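subagent[fold] <- orchestrator: predict structure for attached chain, return tokens only, no commentary.
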Amino acid sequence: MNGNNQNTRLAFLVVNFGSSTLLARNLAPAVRECRPDVVVVVDCWSGEDERQRVTELSAAEGWDLVSLPDNRGFGGGMNAGAARARQLGATQLLLINPDARIDSSALDLLSTVAAEYPDALVAPRVVDAEGKTWFAGAVLHLSDGATSGRSARLPEATDGIWEWISGACMMLSMQLWDAVGGFDESYFLYWEDVDLSRRVTARGGRLIVVQEATVLHEEGGTHKDQVEGRGKSGTYYHYMIRNRLMFATKHLDAEGIRRWRRASVTNAWAVLLQGGRRQFLHPVAPARAAWRGLREGMALAAFALKNDGSERQT
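subagent[fold] -> orchestrator:
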């Protein structure tokens, strides 16, 4: 698939962690329809049986498989995938989750915009299985570090927000990927897309959500420790809460870090509530994960403040 530019070489990048069933259900039919030039699946180690399944699936589908000896998280996996795609001559990257599916019409729209704006991080509108919008642009509120949909909470001033694009599905040029250095692997899971978005805009790039392009997303489908009917996974709670303050140490001044730190308990409770109240019938596991994330995030903030502010990259 060369889109509207014969010089474009498109690569699909997917990170797998125990999700070979989702790859068969979502990636395989999408690749057959969209026909990208390169498909790179990065398998983060989750066990011998899963390694065998994803190896066999990749061979049958003609995908390029990068088998990592450990679990490097979403960012680390995507960085490994992009490195392999570069070796295979890719000039444009589509990063997509195993639990997301794209069709050819959405891909053409994204590819056209990405080719026209090589400095842009481009995303579709993401919908759930019922057709409800899951992502159509998002903002980070600098007052307290909360995130929301683009229109869910209006800031008092436009300089009080930073926009960001979800890593569930995004497209960008290899040129832009190299310019920003890919994902920051220290996040491991969650907030690395917020971080990437910030680094793109900080260097003068733009974030574009193509509302006419829609992608289906089965939210939570890649979380191995999520129990049906009991909310989000412990992994989700831990990293979502921790990484908010990690982001602060990388992008805010000392005053900003303190401001976000003061709102951390409120924010952690809001993250827990995303899993619904039924989970509190079995509260120990989610509470433990949230506390661990809060404790680690607070430690990161304290370290940054002790060392004269933060390790800001922007």
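orchestrator: received. Logging for downstream: The chain has two domains: 10-217, 234-306. Residues 234-306 form one domain.
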